[in-house]
Amino acid sequence: MLWARKLPRDLRSGLLAALAVYLGGALLTEALNGWAHANGHSTVLMLGTIVEEGLEMSGRLVALAVLCRYVVLEQDPASGRALVRLRDD
Q1: Cα–Cα distance list, 18 to 42, 47, 66 (Å)
Q2: CA quadruple 36, 42, 44, 49: dihedral positive or negative?
Q3: pLDDT in tens, the chain (89 residues)
């Protein structure tokens, strides 16, 4: 993941954690769901789908939360307008 090397350490760690949560939901529970579907375990398939979608959504939310930490909202004292910028450090 060459793109991640240029990011600040806490941003990189947060985004990689979000990716791990998302891929855990997308790949691991999808494999479980495939097994449940092939073997006729409808209850396991239903619960696995709930877990899969929950993990995928959680991964998205973690990524959004990490990215929101780098956005700073300020008010311009001269004009009173809102300014949005990225954090410097």
Answers
A1: 29, 22, 9
A2: positive
A3: 677 788 888 999 999 999 999 999 999 999 999 999 999 999 999 999 999 999 999 999 999 999 999 898 899 899 999 999 888 76
CA distances from 56 to 1, 16, 76, 87, 89 (A): 20, 14, 38, 27, 29
Question: With contact defined as beta carbons under 8 Å apart, do 25 and 56 qualify?
Answer: yes
52 vs 26: CA distance, rounded Å: 6
DSSP state of 1: -
The three-state secondary structure class of 6 is coil
pLDDT of residue 86: 84
Q: Write down the H helix ranges in 1-89.
A: 2-5, 9-23, 29-38, 42-68
